[in-house]
Amino acid sequence: MRVLVVEDEQLLADAVATGLRREAMAVDVVYDGGAALERIGVNDYDVVVLDRDLPVVHGDDVCRQIVGLGMPTRVLMLTAAGDVSDRVEGLELGADDYLPKPFAFSELTARVRALGRRTTTALPPVLERSGIKLDPNRREVFRDGAEVHLAPKEFAVLEVLMRSEGSVVSAEQLLEKAWDENTDPFTNVVRVTVMTLRRKLGEPPVIVTVPGSGYRI
């Protein structure tokens, strides 16, 4: 899942990004609304975690632009104002969800994951294919009943492949969904991660390489 965190309190923004990365999400961070619009114009995000009171371009205007462009991106709006009227106003702007500050990180994560599921075709909360069971919420993976321990990027790649339901996923798509914008697109990080993932999942291999196209399960 690719997430953009837009928050002018830099310590909070960086803490949220670090926590979401530990949950196997690819996260970019910006600190004002103008930078947010630049990133949205370049990258495809599943979810934008958007502070409402932003400098340069207000969060309300960022939300309006996302909605106006008809993007599948979901918006989780954050604000220090917790009144019902503020929440209603934020939702009326087109935000998909609303979370007042201060918030529990576990709740933020759960809301981001729930919104991320809404950007694609509805799938069961626990994904199963070829003897693999993947639970995104619990961050657990089992193969034929035996638990498999994966690093965050390995988990993210496996989740993207499982959600494709047998379709081929290119290396570029994996890079876009599982890594943030600071990753060099010319590295072999995708190939190395897939190799390690294959080894951890065991025999017989379930990740198939489609020459010139990508990977599928």
UniProtKB/TrEMBL annotation:
Domain Response regulatory: 2-116
SUPFAM superfamilies, sorted: CheY-like
Annotated transmembrane regions: none
Domain OmpR/PhoB-type: residue ranges: 124-217
UniProt KW Phosphoprotein keyword: yes
Origin: domain of life: Bacteria
Pfam families: Response_reg, Trans_reg_C
DNA-binding region: 124-217
InterPro entries: CheY-like_superfamily, OmpR/PhoB-type_DNA-bd, Sig_transdc_resp-reg_receiver, WalR-like, WH-like_DNA-bd_sf
Name of the protein this chain belongs to: Response regulator transcription factor
Organism classification: Bacteria, Bacillati, Actinomycetota, Actinomycetes, Kitasatosporales
